[in-house]
Amino acid sequence: MLLITCPWCGERDQTEFHCHGEAFIARPANALDMTDEEWGDYVFFRKNVKGIHYERWSHDHGCGRWFIAVRNTATDEFLGFYKPGEEIPAFELEGA
Amino acid sequence: MSRYSVFSLVRNALSYHQNWQRAWRSPDPKREYDIVIVGGGGHGLATAYYLATECGITNVAVVEKGWLGGGNTGRNTTIVRSNYLWDESAAIYDHAMTLWQGLSRELNYNVMYSPRGLLHLAHSVHDMQEIQRRGNAIYLNGIDSEFLSPEQVKAMVPYMQMDGRYPVLGALLQRRGGTARHDAVAWGYARGADAAGVDIIQNCEVTGFDIQDGAVVGVETTRGRIGAKKVGVVAAGHSSVVAEMAGFRMPLESFPLQALVSEPVKPAVDCVIMSNGVHAYISQSDKGELVIGASSDAYNSYTQRGSFDVIEDTLQAICELYPLFTRMRMLRQWGGIVDVTVDRSPILTKTPVRNMYFNCGWGTGGFKCTPGSGHVFAHSLANGEMHPIAAPFSMDRFHSGALIDEGAAAAVAH
Ligand SMILES: Cc1cc2nc3c(=O)[nH]c(=O)nc-3n(C[C@H](O)[C@H](O)[C@H](O)COP(=O)(O)OP(=O)(O)OC[C@H]3O[C@@H](n4cnc5c(N)ncnc54)[C@H](O)[C@@H]3O)c2cc1C
Ligand SMILES: [Zn+2]
Prior knowledge:
Strand order of the largest sheet of chain A: 3-4-5-6
Largest sheet of chain A: 4 strands, antiparallel
Bound molecules: flavin-adenine dinucleotide, zinc ion
Largest sheet of chain B: 8 strands, mixed
Order of helices and strands of chain A: EEEHEEE
Helix content of chain A: under 10%
Strand content of chain B: 25-35%
Shape of chain B: globular
Number of strands of chain B: 18
Strand content of chain A: 25-35%
Distance between the termini of chain A: 26 Å
Oligomer: heterodimer
């Protein structure tokens, strides 16, 4: 069970939240000209990193708002929580 | 390899079991192999076994970062079945089912395949429609499946709570479904592969690939470089990590999936009972423990643990359906990292790197297919072309759109 800090509501139990996976996947602007290859990559292929993961969460059973969390998927340790548009520092794993 | 038999048992009993031969060697890696398999789980070991015994390729190494079967193979709830919806799935899972039936004899190793019958419960009108659609599709594919009325379910499992919070409206039964002993599957294939000449190299992590002109020619490991004419990656939850070493992405996400066992009790559950709707499935091991499977966590992770709220969810469903078990104590809980595709079907495929093949994406339900997957993957590696049963599971489907969508049929099921 994780403790998650909603940037608006503060620290809450993970069961109040829903994870929406990898962050910063922008919907392609040139949708009409894209190949099947590019569509497949956009829809299905993920980094699935073991290490620092930038991901989207929503506080469903709280304020309902979306935010970005940075988590080390090898340990489940959270490194930070950010409102959309906020600047996110570049994280590096120790020893990496 | 000395064969196991009644006579070897008696002979070894007379010498107080001091003289059993080691089940497989522990060789140092050679400079080069025809084929290197990355990952010593059941699927990797089965692949090596069939390469050596059926395809005539014995210059093979299996490279495992930990110990044999220490991944999902030794962590699953051992359920075996082939009642999937789509034709492609029916072909590969039932291929495995056929192999399960003769596996102990073939390997001279008791994998304890037990066709004790497997029930899928239906708790709602939607569940009833799902099992009817799937049951008929399975039947048309020549695979056994029967519908049970609530009365028939009650006769099979007398202590089931039929009209509680999760009313039981019916069930789908596969009589050939059941369980097998997970560790024995890894060990049996390892022993058979070793006897046929395969080198099994444990405590050896693959850390990179030697790729020249777009083709793989070797693997970098914690025990040095090992040359390879072909490489088969069978790394389950870590497939994305290994793919990244080779410079491409996979359509996978890795999640913790957990299971737990109770204290051992007298025989009480003589079949496997699954309930997709309420995320709980249960069987009883030969030692007497109730083996209970939970659902996966809803966020990516490589922690091999799993959340408490998931356990709570699962156990409340078990207690509701089987009030008999409310006072059981749970002894152990663990997690495994499962590699999940969006269509909940596996990936057996060539890759952007020549001579490198991947077998992954088995997610929450690949134990049951260990023999089938190893068999068709071995033939694909040997021939350089995907075996006809494996071909539809190629990674291309995520670009062509020809998904094999078992999501509805197997959302939870294993
Ligand atoms: C809790 C749980 C319950 C499950 N229940 C069922 C069930 O009831 N029925 C069912 O059919 N399936 C079930 N599954 C799924 C099933 O366990 C898996 O699909 C299957 O065991 C995968 O086998 P494998 O050989 O591909 O993977 P694994 O056994 O995980 O083997 C992969 C191996 O690759 C190794 N590896 C990874 N990276 C490297 C590297 N860089 N270098 C060297 N080696 C590496 C790992 O150490 C590991 O040993 C369950 C899974 C879990 C976690
Ligand atoms: Zn909030």
